[in-house]
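Here is one chain, start to finish.
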Amino acid sequence: MKPAAQRPLAHEALDEELQRCLQHLQVEKRLAARTLAMYRDALVRLQRLAAAEGVALPQAQVHHLRGWVAALRHQGLGARSIAITLSAWRGLYRWWGRDGRVAHNPALAVRPPRAAKPLPSALPVEQAVALAEHEGAGDEGGPELRARDHAIVELLYGCGLRVGELLGLDVQASARARGWIDLADASAHVLGKGGKRRSVPIGAPARQALQAWLQARPGLARADQPALFVSRRGTRLSPNALRARLRAMALRAGLPGPVHPHMLRHSFASHLLQSSGDLRAVQELLGHASIQTTQVYTRLDFQHLARAYDAAHPRAKRR
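Its structure:
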């Protein structure tokens, strides 16, 4: 049996006042249909909780709402759903406040539970290497696009670049360039978040892939196009086109699930940390302003160690 907080809400009738609030949100605030449905569920929950305690909603106080949030949490509602529920409750009391129905908004003093931050998605080492070594056999688009895609994957996984940093690269440095590559120096110079520049070393496989792409690039790029990576039309490659090509490439390389560009950045960081243990170096290479942002990869590293322990140690049968 589902917890009370997760039982169907769509067919439960709303009090007339709450229904009027929903109509206000629909007509005047023009909320999207999905958002409106979530807000309706939130008001149904509020109606249920208040009725169970015999509290008239306009007279509800902060301690009532805190107790109701705790009850929803106990019933199994997730932190994100509770945050959406509280947003709907605040909207109701704000609307009543404008009409003079309530003197204050009790939902303003109530905070939702903190949601656990999901771990970044990283590929296992063997899958990341298989994708990086896949040179496009069977891929559509001709040898130029295959050379381009191979170089893109090598840079994403070999340098840990963000999509914007990668697609902002030019073939060479200039006054207008956001970023550029220097094969002689084996480095990529990128413009990261907050307008911060950094230089990232380029490994030998990525250099070889870039050299092959630079030889093929004149077959696609316009003569006056400075972008390192270009589309079929010869213009700078777009993020959407890159994501689509990467998904198709991962499928052809035999990976079991879809791959997005940031997954290769996460894989770069996780695999580097597993091998080196140097969190500060990973921070510098990723361009993180705070070490706390980089520390999420220590959790991925622990998961890797736990799996190795479970697989290898004679006393590892923890379950």
